[in-house]
Specification:
Elements: H1 7-10, H2 14-22, H3 39-51, H4 63-69, H5 75-86, H6 90-100, H7 114-119, H8 127-140, H9 151-158, E1 163-166, E2 173-176, E3 181-183, E4 195-202, E5 207-215, H10 218-224, E6 229-238, E7 243-252, E8 255-261, H11 267-281, H12 290-306, H13 316-321, H14 323-326, H15 345-350, H16 355-364, E9 368-370, E10 376-380, E11 388-392, E12 404-405, E13 410-411, E14 413-417, E15 423-427, H17 430-448
Parallel strand pairs: 3-5, 11-14
Antiparallel strand pairs: 1-2, 1-4, 2-3, 4-5, 6-7, 7-8, 9-10, 10-11, 12-13, 14-15
Helix pairs in contact: 2-3, 4-5, 5-6, 5-9, 6-8
Length: about 475
């Protein structure tokens, strides 16, 4: 770098924020600075002090904060000492504070157990740290030795955001109460403990290496951090299992201390989670049928003609955006994807239409058309502008004009089929087909299907759905 950056830019601002609060300053902007404290870092420091009880909700210092500010320690360590003293663990807290205020005296050792550092305080090489601990004990009015078994608990008072629970597996990976991940780089005695208090991490990454820690019990967490433990009830969609999960959890920050099934979760919450599942999986997860697909296409056809105001939008995008309105009422009692198979999609879509709209739909966009042979042939509305009627040519004998839908506004596109149901002609002008193309088509089909009826004059012939020719041709 061209020059050394100002300390204010990179420093931990918690001590500064506590000093300002003690002086009655809640907004650093009212002071003149050579380099003002970065707003985000200062806000983060204030949040930490509020969590430690040093600041109130208004940002002003509390009585506990004044006691902390009187100690020559970082606010984390000061809070640890004051809190531990109230539990009769002040001596241990003073020793820990002295240790953590200096570089790790055993940093060359691979073992991250903080208890080993406490045991090493008897080493003459650690005399300065031992003397600092002694002075801190005098200042705090603490005498005597404390049991070393509560190291993790006392440490957790300083670092409540670094209480860690094991993720299982190989025992090397943990989740911190602040939501971040932490891990041991290699196996060691602390690895595998269900809970830890972490004093030092390598860096500020989302997944950082644990350098110093001490064991902590779940019972200690529940007892001494009860005020920070929240009861959460949540109903969510599990995309992997494709089911609704209703859970009752006790959480410390982002750590789940207890996870139980929520048997009587509100029906509204379960339905909302199912809707999230449908959004996650897409509309393809619903049991669409030819009838429901056809209804959507028929409505789209009339909507194209009559305008968006006349008919609801049943496109994929519109249906996905309005699941609460049309699908939610039908999801009662459903908890997983397999339950969606119970839905009758055609009935659900019809419920989106008024009685008048259903009547108009059946009249102007019928599902089938009765052709001259008497057969009821389905109409394909896949293209809103050009509905298709695929019908064997022989069944249309005697019909002069192309049939229509939508009150005569749309001519059907006729796919005239051979006896093997292969298209031999596509037209929207049946009269022109009879007059011009039929003769050549008749010649080709007579050669391929000689047992079938291929009259010279299709307009005077009797339509038939049978293989052989009619016994008595109809003459006009």
């Amino acid at each position: 770098p061209a020059f050394t950056p100002a300390e204010m830019v990179d420093a931990d601002l918690a001590p500064l924020a506590l000093d300002l609060a003690r002086w009655g300053v809640t907004d650093p902007g009212v002071l003149a600075w050579l380099d003002p404290p970065p707003a985000a870092a200062f806000a983060q420091a204030g949040e930490l002090l509020r969590r430690l009880g040093a600041l109130g909700g208004d940002g002003r210092i509390t009585a506990h904060g004044r006691v902390m500010a009187a100690l020559p320690l970082h606010p984390r360590l000061a809070h640890m000492v004051v809190t531990a003293k109230g539990l009769g663990l002040g001596g241990l807290a003073c020793d820990l504070a002295a240790l953590l205020s200096e570089p790790d005296p055993l940093k060359d050792r691979r073992d991250a157990d903080l208890r080993l550092r406490l045991e090493a305080l008897g080493d003459r090489r650690l005399g300065p740290i031992r003397e600092a601990a002694r002075q801190l004990r005098r200042q705090c009015g603490v005498s005597g030795d404390d049991a070393g078994g509560a190291v993790g608990l006392v440490l957790a008072f300083a670092y409540p955001d670094r209480i860690a629970l094991s993720r299982g597996g190989d025992g090397l990976r943990y989740r911190l109460s602040n939501g971040r991940g932490a891990f041991f780089a290699e196996p060691q005695p602390l690895a595998g403990d269900a809970a830890l208090s972490v004093a030092e991490l390598d860096g500020d990454k989302r997944e950082a290496r644990i350098l110093l820690a001490a064991p902590l019990s779940l019972a200690e967490i529940r007892l001494h951090f009860a005020a920070d433990i929240e009861d959460r009830r949540q109903v969510t969609w599990d995309g992997r299992e494709q089911t609704v999960l209703a859970r009752r959890q006790r959480r410390l920050g982002e750590l789940v201390l207890e996870d139980l099934r929520w048997e009587d979760a509100p029906a509204e919450a379960v339905t909302a989670a199912m809707l999230d599942g449908v959004r996650n999986m897409g509309l393809a997860c619903l049991p669409w049928t030819p009838a429901s697909d056809g209804l959507r296409q028929r409505v789209a056809c009339l909507r194209h003609l009559d305008g968006a105001e006349a008919w609801p939008d049943l496109s994929d995008a519109a249906l996905l955006s309005e699941l609460e309105r049309w699908l939610a009422p039908w999801l009662a009692g459903m908890l997983r994807r397999a339950h969606l198979e119970r839905l009758d999609m055609a009935t659900i879509l019809q419920a989106m239409l008024s009685w008048e709209q259903r009547k108009v739909l059946d009249a102007q966009a019928p599902t089938h058309l009765e052709v001259p042979s008497g057969s009821r042939v389905p109409i394909d509305y896949g293209s809103a502008e050009m509905p298709i009627l695929a019908v064997r040519l022989q069944e249309m004998f005697g019909l002069a004009d192309t049939p229509t839908v939508a009150g005569g506004r749309i001519r059907l596109t006729l796919h005239l089929l051979s006896p093997a149901r292969r298209p031999v002609q596509v037209t929207q002008d049946l009269a022109s087909f009879w007059a011009n193309a039929y003769r050549q088509v008749r010649s080709d089909l007579r050669g391929q299907y000689p047992r079938h009826y291929w009259p010279d004059n299709p307009l005077e012939a009797e339509p038939t759905a049978r293989t052989n020719r009619p016994r008595t041709p109809k003459l006009r």
